Amino acid sequence: MDQGVAAVVAGLAGTVGALAGALAGMRGARLGALKAVEAAHLHVQGQARTEHKHWVREQRRQAYTRTSHLYVEVLHSLRSCGDALSRAQGDLAAERLQFTDRAVTDLQIAVFDLRLWGPHEIVAVAKDLRRSANRARDVLVRWHDSLTSRQECDHLESEYNEAMGQLGDPYAEYMEIAARTLAVPAST
Hints:
A middle domain of Talin 1, mainly alpha, single chain
């Protein structure tokens, strides 16, 4: 082969090699860009899941705290009304019973709201809180009715004290489950 033809063949071979390298480079760049987009997408999804978990945890914390505060308010209202009844102050007891009714109703609403946030375990024990508060309130109503109609009501005072004594167990369990549910897992 003559030198001119050899130069042209070598030039063509170089050009074909350069084109092949450029195509491989473009394909590599494209794959790299796709992998970068995929990694960014996965990162954003993971971050969104984490943010959602934090948001749900905060909503739970607020709902659990509200329920706890309302339960304490119910306890104070029940005790206040019971104190008035034990001193045979029917009018004061009637006034306090209205506050107790409102506090129990607010607690019931808060317990219903817990179904939005769960878990089922805390909803179940919160229902026990509600039932215990309702039982104590029902005894107060019967005690007040007996007092105002001048009937014997010593047995109702005992029943009230028993109902009040049972209020602590579901509350302790509720607080334990709330703390466990809201706990941040230990990092490993």
